[in-house]
Structure formats: structure tokens, C-alpha cells
Amino acid sequence: MKHPGNKYLYLLIVAVQMFILTLFGTRVYGQSQIQQFDDRIMLDLAASRTPAQTDVMLFLSRSYKYVDVGVPAGLLIGGIISNDKQMRQNSLYIASSTAISYGMMLLIKHIVRRPRPFEKNIKIVPVYRASSSSFPSGHATSSFSTAMALSNAYPKWYVIAPSMLWAGSVSYSRMYLGVHYPTDVTAGAILGTGTALLLQPLKK
Fold first, then answer.
1. Confidence of residue 133 (pLDDT cuts 50, 70, 90)
2. Which of 2, 120, 127, 194 fits 115 for a cystine, CB–CB 3.0-4.6 Å?
3. Domain that holds residue 150
């Protein structure tokens, strides 16, 4: 009997391959339709920025590091203090999911090397100029991995709803700030979510 994790791994690989092929294998003349869609969304977001919204988006964008580390660390400390083995195991599951998805994201970035939106199209003006390549979004990858793993560990609406809202907000902030395309963010969300599902056996 096949392990259910194999199904998630297969779906994850296929999804990432489809994104890469769609983005870089469908050009005939000029830009692909996906690239045109990406550019249009980025230009619309840049045109609608306000100082207040930008401050919020910068805060959300920066929050991912603290949440990605804070959630498993908090569970580990709580599990040690309360002698709760399940909580400690869930901490390992969430931390492993986030770390592995982040490593896979770095590998894909190195292979694909997609330019940042503001490097590809000078009309797209970012709030700040991020380094490294664009595909997939690291923020979307790790935030959705953390959110999905936490939701799997504690499948209650009051955990799932804020977790997914946070991950979605972080991902949206990357587009708003002009440093990632919608397809970068979508691929990162798929990668992070898929990794959390693949590693479910670590959850107790």
C-alpha cells in the first residue's frame, strides 16, 4: 500500500513543474500571457499604494521571520514546561516543514533565476529593491508552510483561520511591495503547503 505522503510529494513536484513550464516554456513571440498578467497586476498594485498601506505591508512582510521561528519555539518551550510530548513533536513537525520548504525554495531559485519584477520591467517601481532571484517567493513558501503545519497540528478553526490569513497577507505584501510576481507567490504557497502535507507523519 502506498504511503499517502507519496501522493502529496507527486502533486507538489507536478505543481512546481507546471509553474516553471508555464512561466518559461510558453513564449513564442515576446512575453507569455502569464508574464503579461504578472506585469499588469504589479503595475496596478504599485499605482494604488498609500503611505499607510505601505507601512502595514512592510510590517507583514517582516513578520514572517518572527512567526516562522516563534511558533515552533513557543511550542517547544511549552512542551518542555508542561511535559507535553505531543506539543514537542508538533514543534519538530512545524520547524522541519518550514526549514525543508525553505531549502527547496532556495534550490528552485538557484535553478530558475527569474529576475525580480523591477529588473524585468522598469515601469514596476518597488518600495525597496530586494536581492536574489524572484521565483518562487521565499516569504510565501515559509509562511504557508508554517501556517499549514500549524493548522495540521491543531485543526481548530481558531488556529486555521488566523494562520492562513497571516500567510496570505504576508504573500500579498510581497506583490504590493513590488518585489514578487503573483506567480512567484502562488508557487511559494503551493511549495510551502505541499511540504507541510508531505511531512504529516511527523505530526502526532
1. confident
2. 120
3. 4-14+35-202
